[in-house]
Amino acid sequence: MPAITLRVATGESAAARSNTVLTLDSLITLVQGVARQPDLWRPGVHFSSKSRHSTRLHRDDQVDMWLMAWLPGSAPDPHDHGAAIEVFTVVEGELLEERIDRDGQLLASRLTSSVIRPIAPRLAHDVRNASDVPAISIHAAAVPVPAMRRVVPAVSWPRPGAASLPRLRTA
Length: 171
Hints:
The protein is mainly beta. It has three helices and eleven strands. The protein has helices at 14-17, 24-35, 38-41; strands at 53-59, 63-70, 79-80, 86-92, 94-100, 106-112, 116-119, 125-128, 135-142, 149-153, 168-170.
């Protein structure tokens, strides 16, 4: 797979950039740029029969970028990304994302190609391929990225139309 070189115009020296966390706008720009260049990510697409397959596209002292390939029905557990900000986009197919907003309401969104989805720090969400065709997405997170924290619902992750939302804790 070809190496991906990412450059973010910040107007700072390399030493100053190494101590700077990327902004949401910078992450959006990176994800959009890589998404428009399939020759950079297509060689990393691999589908796993058990779940989504993740391939690291790039990591440096500012960003961690991943390619994810989703077969129909594949889904990680509901989770958050700790204190990191993340952005992702679907480049092929469609994904379903469910998240709990600040008011405790469940929001479900179908994400298709070129939709950019920011993920705020400590936002619990569930992403899955609920369609009948494979999907591919590109994700970028500002470094440092803590380990993904699985969200463990007290009962079960709520689905659209659920009467009440469970209490959430992280594992």
